[in-house]
């Protein structure tokens, strides 16, 4: 069967892989590793953003393993993401790597991707249904894990359970299996022994999507915060994002219009990338009573860097502490851990909470 | 506070002094905004040309991860705020039909309003939807001019942008021709590119700047407006027309980081020597001279 490489998108790589199955092809995916990142850094122009390098490295690794096709999202926005596919293709061609990267964009009636593979209609629909369900399951898993990890009595329990569930999800082949898993998840997380009666700090994670989701690129910020007894909320949930892209969300704060409305006092235009999301989510988290926010973005990210002054203004106006963390290939893990620990210390201090941690 | 012009709402502002930072969009159409505001009865105050002191100020106040032009913009604004209490900061979304501008320009008015205690007069410049002339008419109308005056002011301003010569540098009869590529705001800012032009002239060659012209654009993968101008300039070079191409880039420029490698391959296909000079606030001008001398020496027959 033809193999198709899918971009790495943290835990959402699993639904992405499932969506490739709807083409009647076999997905190739893996998590980012130092090796794939190194491949990308060597091949990419020096000052491109980290997601570009990671993604390119990922595809190069796939090509080394004999995969000839890849899929990449296609943005129509103003940020660098718009050029990812075309430039990656050019770089691969120049390196004499045999790989064709498909976009999801339209070209006539059918996207070229579907025209090329031309899957039977039933395979296609079943694949799409599985992918959508898997996205929902990952969303649910994430929500459960963020809540449980902050309160777990034995450090690592939640992460272990999360990995087990993800593995199961990856292997689930039928809609019934996925539905069953989805029903079982809340019970499994309830079974994790937690500290009763403690109200954890709540910290919002906002910023650029790839770095927010890819746990290797962001040095596993969610786990670092969780281990410090903080309940995180990562504002990039693919389920909501997909709804936004397909205009299925009309008036809530997740819709395009809702976000613009929330961000309006500070930002009156779409800047590109996820800038408007970052601004509106930060305002939302301040209004919702979060104790702090961590702004995560790749170094030099055009939209996110442009709105940094806006975030500091929001921070002042709403008295919401915000930690800016920019990530590139030289970011030191220990540095990130130290900064986050200090940030959390300050949050505890400002909340006058007793320092009771199980670390 | 942001004064934003829309079709429905006129802004009631008394004509007075208006600050125009000598950075970014100022260089897209040099002279346009001064003459436009002057003919509306305002007194335009343009910040002084970039100097070492501006760069130091930029380093002090600007966001560390921005590119040099945006940092300089902030410094120019900072300088103006000390002099005037109203500044013009348009939101540049596109300056070319079918293209988009760098995303950093889209957040400028909002960020300026947050960082400085000053009235910001702004207008959306989006030439995908509205020509520059129409934008100017709307702006003039919302500033209180009647329809006829607004039209004549706008058409005069647009005429003036068109009548600019394509290559501003004087050409000497002998010497190799070198094409200098860059964004309007890097080529226009004497602090960034002035040394390049000066040194090349001293070396006895003719530097020529591209980009200000509006060539017929074919569809290409390059969607950023200024990058697209550079790309088409580069694409349209005939063999032997230029001895070399010098690309002026600034550190952490997102557009350049993506596309310069592509430009290099275009130049390589045409067998034209291509060099990238990267500028930031720490660039040593002596180093620039050395690189230019070496580049010219290797090309010179």
List keywords for this structure.
heterodimer; A: 359 residues; alpha/beta; Rossmann fold; 2 domains; four-stranded parallel sheet; globular; B: 301 residues; three-stranded parallel sheet; 11 strands; 42% helix
Describe the protein.
The complex is a heterodimer of chains A (359) and B (301). With 359 residues, chain A is an alpha/beta fold. Chain A has two domains: 3-118, Rossmann fold (3-Layer(aba) Sandwich), CATH 3.40.50; 200-359, Rossmann fold (3-Layer(aba) Sandwich). Helix content of chain A is 52%, strand content 11%. Chain A has helices spanning 13-21, 34-43, 50-64, 84-94, 112-117, 121-149, 157-171, 175-190, 209-213, 221-227, 238-245, 256-263, 275-287, 302-306, 308-318, 333-351; strands spanning 3-5, 26-28, 69-72, 100-103, 201-207, 230-234, 292-298, 322-327. In chain A, the strands form two sheets. Chain A has a four-stranded parallel sheet with strand order 2-1-3-4. In chain A, helix 2 packs across helix 3 (50-64). The N and C termini of chain A lie far apart (47 Å). The mean pLDDT of chain A is 88. With 301 residues, chain B is α/β, with parallel strands linked by helices. Chain B is built from eleven helices and eleven strands. Chain B has helices at residues 32-39, 52-61, 68-81, 108-115, 132-142, 147-162, 184-188, 190-202, 225-235, 254-269, 285-299; strands at 2-4, 17-20, 43-46, 86-88, 91-94, 119-122, 124-126, 177-181, 206-209, 244-250, 274-279. In chain B, helix 10 links the parallel strand 10 and strand 11 (274-279). In chain B, helix 9 runs parallel beside helix 10 (254-269). Chain B is globular and about 60 Å long. The model of chain B has no long low-confidence stretch (mean pLDDT 86). Chain A binds chain B through residues 45-49, 52, 77-80, 82-83, 86-87, 90-91, 94, 266-273, 275, 299-303, 305-310, 313, 326, and chain B through 2, 4, 63, 65-66, 70, 91, 93, 100-104, 106-107, 109-111, 114-115, 124, 221, 223-224, 251-254, 256-262, 265.
């Amino acid at each position: 069967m033809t193999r198709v490489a899918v971009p790495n998108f943290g835990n959402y790589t699993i639904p992405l892989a499932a969506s490739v199955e709807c083409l009647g092809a076999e997905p190739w995916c893996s998590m980012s590793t130092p090796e794939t990142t190194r491949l990308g850094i060597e091949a990419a122009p020096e000052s491109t953003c980290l997601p570009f390098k990671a993604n390119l490295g990922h595809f190069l690794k796939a090509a080394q393993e004999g995969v000839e096709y890849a899929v990449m999202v296609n943005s129509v926005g103003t940020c660098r993401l718009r050029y990812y596919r075309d430039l990656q293709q050019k770089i691969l061609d120049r390196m004499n790597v045999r790989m064709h990267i498909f976009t999801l964009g339209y070209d006539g009636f059918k996207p070229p991707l579907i025209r090329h593979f031309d899957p039977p209609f039933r395979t296609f629909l079943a694949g799409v249904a599985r992918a959508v369900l898997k996205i929902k399951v990952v969303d649910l898993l994430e929500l459960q894990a963020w809540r449980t990890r902050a309160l777990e009595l034995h450090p690592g329990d939640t992460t272990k359970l999360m990995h087990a569930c993800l593995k199961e999800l990856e292997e689930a082949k039928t809609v019934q299996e996925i539905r069953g898993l989805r029903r079982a998840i809340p019970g499994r997380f309830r079974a994790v022994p937690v500290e009763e009666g403690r109200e954890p700090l709540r910290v919002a994670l906002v910023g650029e999507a790839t770095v927010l989701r890819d746990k290797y690129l962001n040095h596993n910020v969610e786990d670092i915060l969780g281990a410090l007894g903080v309940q995180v909320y990562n504002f990039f949930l693919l389920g909501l994002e997909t709804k936004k892209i397909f205009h299925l969300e009309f008036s809530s704060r997740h819709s395009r219009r809702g976000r613009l409305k929330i961000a309006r006092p500070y930002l009156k235009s779409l800047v590109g990338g996820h800038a408007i999301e970052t601004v509106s989510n930060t305002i939302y988290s301040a209004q919702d009573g979060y104790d702090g926010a961590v702004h995560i973005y790749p170094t030099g990210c055009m939209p996110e860097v442009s709105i940094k002054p806006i975030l500091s203004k929001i921070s002042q106006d709403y008295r919401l502490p915000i930690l800016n963390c920019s990530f590139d290939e030289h970011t030191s893990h220990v540095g990130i851990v130290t900064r986050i620990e200090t940030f959390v210390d300050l949050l505890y201090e400002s909340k006058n909470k007793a320092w009771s941690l199980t670390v | 506070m942001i004064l934003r012009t829309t079709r429905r709402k006129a802004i009631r502002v008394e004509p007075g002094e208006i600050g125009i930072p000598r950075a970014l969009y100022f260089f897209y159409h040099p002279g346009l905004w001064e003459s436009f505001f002057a003919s509306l009865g305002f007194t335009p105050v343009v910040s002084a040309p970039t100097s070492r002191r501006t760069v130091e100020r930029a380093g002090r106040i600007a966001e560390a991860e921005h590119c040099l032009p945006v940092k300089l913009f902030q410094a120019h604004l900072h300088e103006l705020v000390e002099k005037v209490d109203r500044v013009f900061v348009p939101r540049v979304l596109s300056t070319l039909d079918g293209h988009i501008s760098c995303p950093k320009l889209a957040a400028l008015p909002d960020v300026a309003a947050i960082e400085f205690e000053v009235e910001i007069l702004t207008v959306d410049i989006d030439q995908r939807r509205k020509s520059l002339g129409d934008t100017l008419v709307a702006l003039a109308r919302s500033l209180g001019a009647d329809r006829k005056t607004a039209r004549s002011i706008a058409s005069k301003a647009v005429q003036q942008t068109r009548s600019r010569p394509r290559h501003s540098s004087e050409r000497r009869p002998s010497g190799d021709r070198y094409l200098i590529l860059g964004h309007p705001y890097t080529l226009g800012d004497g602090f960034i590119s002035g040394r390049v032009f000066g040194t090349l002239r001293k070396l006895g060659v003719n530097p020529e700047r591209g980009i200000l012209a509006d060539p017929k654009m074919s569809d290409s993968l390059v969607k950023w407006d200024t990058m697209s101008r550079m790309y088409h300039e580069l694409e349209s070079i005939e063999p032997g027309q230029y001895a070399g191409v010098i690309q002026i880039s600034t550190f952490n420029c997102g557009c350049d980081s993506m596309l310069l490698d592509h430009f290099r391959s275009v130049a390589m296909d045409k067998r034209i020597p291509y060099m990238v000079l990267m500028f930031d606030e720490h660039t040593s001008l002596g180093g620039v001279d050395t690189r230019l001398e070496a580049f010219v020496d290797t090309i010179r027959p």
